[in-house]
Amino acid sequence: MKSPLKASIKNDYMGFNGTNIVSLGWNFAHRQFSCCGVDSYNDFTGGVKWNTNYGGGLKAPITCCVTIPDSATPTCAVTPSDIYTKGCFDEVYNMLLGDVSLVVGTIAGCGCFQLVLIIFALIIFCDARQSSKVDPEA
Question: Contact, 43 vs 50, CB < 8 A?
Fold first, then answer.
């Protein structure tokens, strides 16, 4: 599961100013989940399209910095300090499936809702069938 994510970083990630979907997605994940890379900022080493010459040789993406730098020299990304150290894979996994009770509750709630809808459909069907009968004494 992690291999395709790491391959997308190596082959398609363009950095802070990248406009392709891979760059935008990773930059969003870094900021939204306070994480960096799949496992760490080291996943970006050797990226084919990543321009590391910005600000004196980047070792980590600028979006991995806890605070996005204002200056032309993003020291937090050049000498990785004050960056997110957690990998995004674990953060996203924990958000989606980490709280098992939330997942089970959601599935159970959807199942109960569908059961109620089936019962209502049967009631409507039986009522429609009953009202369509012709009374022979009328």
Answer: no
